[in-house]
Design brief:
The protein is of the alpha+beta class. It has helices at residues 2-40, 47-75, 105-114, 162-173, 220-223, 292-300, 348-356, 360-365, 396-405, 433-448, 460-468, 488-491, 512-523, 527-544; strands spanning 76-81, 85-91, 119-121, 127-129, 132-137, 143-148, 189-192, 197-201, 247-255, 263-270, 283-289, 306-308, 323-329, 332-338, 372-373, 409-410, 416-418, 421-422, 424-430, 452-458, 474-480, 547-552, 554-560, 587-592. The protein folds into 3 domains: 2-76, no CATH class; 85-328 and 556-592, Periplasmic binding protein-like II (D-Maltodextrin-Binding Protein, domain 2, 3-Layer(aba) Sandwich); 331-552, Dipeptide-binding Protein, domain 3 (Roll). The strands form 6 sheets. Strands 9-10-11-2-12-23-13 form a 7-stranded mixed β-sheet. Strands 15-22-14-21-19-20 form a 6-stranded mixed β-sheet. A 4-stranded antiparallel β-sheet has the order 5-6-8-7, with helices on one face. The termini are far apart.
Length: 593
């Protein structure tokens, strides 16, 4: 009975639920019919209203997006960011990263990135400490004391101490090591006073000595066990160098089938323990090209961030918005050196006449880009420079009188003669667009006063051979002077001797007055005294006219876009472009202002 009653109750409930669902469905159909389907027929009557609302919504959305993007400029901006690999192209060949042997532009660049030095030049070309924290000298100027920074280390995490510095310079002094730097280190005593202090004792006072401490320091713990006679050829130099510079050696590879198209790729990574802070760049790659054309092609393919070694910006890259050509003055001079032992140029009157018969401004204008004028053997702004003692200025009539006085009369072809001898001399220089333009201008001006300058332009290697043997009458060449005005090597008579260590006195100039002034100038510590001494040198140089100063050369650095924090005002030499390479950046990202 109970079961039947329960079953009937559940059946009634099911029927009521079914009835409710049917009623709800019927009501839903009525509502849809009344409120939707019947009204759809009237939708066309309000389409304008709907379209206006849709347009309004779209307009509001667009204005919101526009406002957001514009507001972004007020609180976000593109700013330099860390990271990225900088790829630099250099023309030449890599042979040695060891700073004791790195002499060419490629070797010097790699060495400068991998190794650190006691001192370096900053972007204003001032000498500042690198590994060195401070330095001092005694009253006589013969003893220099250098103190290292604290907690220095090599890239293999070994500590860098005064022992490494002493080892470096004693290795340079060792004749078996055959370092090209040995010349300037004769009779210099080096010792470590403590773990962080080094003492240099010189045979005589030398005010410019700190500028000689800019070469890289090498690790004693890796090289001391190698015989000095074998040091130049060890793997450390070419495949496993370890320094204390901003970048660490990774690898080297060679690409290209033919010698002229061969490319050497030297990969470096950031030194996270660098004493001046981890570099902003993640890596640095140097691509070495045998020919400039191959390098330029690689740059055009966006394979390089920068190029080194060009004398001028290629025409196909000119006026490109993304290309920046940094024309940076060098602390040096381009001069016409007159070999004073040469037959015709041994006559002081002839040299003076050659100096007064040219307008150096006209010669400089042929370059096509601005340069700093040079008008004496010291640089403008340098200690000792004296505008009152500049070289002889242009004076055509005075030049002609001097030539006439020396017996040189104008011949039938317009060239001056003395007896059967013509007033002619051989002028050598490097074969590039810069020097060839300057020489053509000078040659033309000398021709106007009856002087025949026979021009010989040679490749860099060929010219170095000619310079090394002083086989010229005159030479257009650029020299490095540096921050300090010590130009002893270029103008002292001791450096005119073939037996001298450098033979850099290209004019083979000899003057007792100039010698005395140069010796006194480099041996004094007081700047005012040095200025007085160098004034005597400038007077002798002006009178004897052993050369014509033309301009300060430039270093051309071509980059793709901006290299952030690269803002040098003047460079001592080309590799000083890396003065603050640890701060260079090429990436950008939007960051809050």
């Amino acid at each position: 009975m109970f079961r039947r009653t329960t079953k009937l109750r559940w059946r009634r409930r099911f029927r009521r639920s079914k009835k409710q669902v049917e009623d709800i469905g019927f009501q839903a159909e009525e509502h849809l019919e009344q409120h939707l389907f019947k009204r759809l027929s009237r939708l066309s009557q309000v389409r304008r209203f709907v379209i206006c609302w849709l347009l309004l919504v779209a307009l509001l959305a667009g204005m919101t997006l526009y406002q957001t993007s514009n507001l972004e400029k007020h609180y976000l901006s593109l700013q330099p960011a860390a990271g990225g690999t900088f790829v630099e192209g250099i023309q030449g060949a890599f042979t040695n990263a060891n700073p004791l042997y790195a002499t060419n532009s490629v070797d010097a660049a790699v060495s400068r990135l991998v190794f650190a030095s006691l001192f370096k030049y900053n972007q204003n070309n001032n000498l500042v400490g690198d590994l060195a924290k401070s330095w001092s000298t005694d009253k006589r100027g013969t003893t220099y004391t250098v103190t290292l920074k604290d907690n220095l280390s090599w890239q293999d995490s070994k500590p860098l101490t005064a022992a490494d510095v002493v080892f470096t310079y004693k290795t340079i002094q060792n004749p078996d090591a055959k370092s090209p730097l040995s010349t300037g280190w004769r009779n210099v005593q080096i010792k470590a006073k403590s773990r962080h202090v080094i003492i240099f004792k010189l045979p005589s006072a030398l005010s410019s000595f700190p500028h000689a401490l800019t070469n890289g320091i090498v690790p004693k713990h890796l090289l001391s066990g190698i015989p000095m006679a074998q040091l130049r050829g060890v793997a450390f130099n070419t495949s496993a160098p370890v320094g204390a510079g901003p970048f660490k050696w990774n690898a080297i590879e060679n690409k290209g089938d033919s010698p002229d198209k061969r490319i050497q790729r030297i990969g470096l990574s950031a030194n996270e323990d660098y004493h001046s802070g981890k570099p902003q760049l993640s890596g640095f790659v140097i691509n070495v090209f045998r020919e400039s054309k191959t390098m330029i092609d690689s740059f055009k393919k966006h394979e390089l961030n920068a190029m080194v070694g060009l004398s001028e910006l290629p025409e196909e890259l000119d006026n490109k918005l993304i290309i920046e050509d940094h024309s940076i003055p060098l602390a040096g001079e381009a001069l016409i050196f007159f070999k004073t032992k040469s037959d015709i140029l041994s006559d002081q009157n002839v040299r003076r006449a050659l100096a007064m018969s040219v307008d150096t401004n006209e010669a400089r204008q042929t370059l096509g880009y601005p340069v700093i004028k040079a008008d004496e053997p010291l640089l403008k702004g340098q200690l000792g420079y004296n505008p009152k003692l500049k070289q002889l200025g242009t004076n055509i009539k005075a030049a002609e009188k001097l030539l006439q006085k020396s017996g040189w009369t104008v011949g039938k072809n317009g060239i001056r003669v003395k007896g059967k001898k013509q007033l002619s001399f051989r002028l050598y220089s490097q074969s590039n667009s810069e020097y060839s333009r300057v020489i053509q201008s000078l040659q033309k001006q000398w021709r106007a006063v009856g002087v025949d300058a026979q021009v010989f332009l040679r490749s860099s290697d060929s010219l170095q051979n000619i310079i090394g043997n002083h086989r010229y009458d005159a030479l257009l060449y650029g020299i490095t002077i540096g921050v300090d005005p010590d130009v002893f090597a270029y103008w002292h008579s001791s450096q005119a001797d073939i037996r001298s260590s450098t033979w850099l006195n290209f004019s083979e100039y000899k003057s007792t007055d100039a010698d005395a002034a140069l010796e006194a100038g480099r041996n004094r510590q007081n700047p005012k005294v040095r200025e007085i001494k160098y004034a005597q040198f400038l007077k002798a140089w002006r009178t004897d006219a052993p050369a014509i100063a033309l301009y300060q050369p430039r270093f051309l650095y071509v980059t793709r876009g901006q290299v952030f924090n690269f803002t040098p005002k003047i460079l001592n030499i080309g590799i000083d472009r890396f003065a603050n390479v640890e701060n260079w950046m090429i990436n950008q990202q939007k960051l809050p202002i």
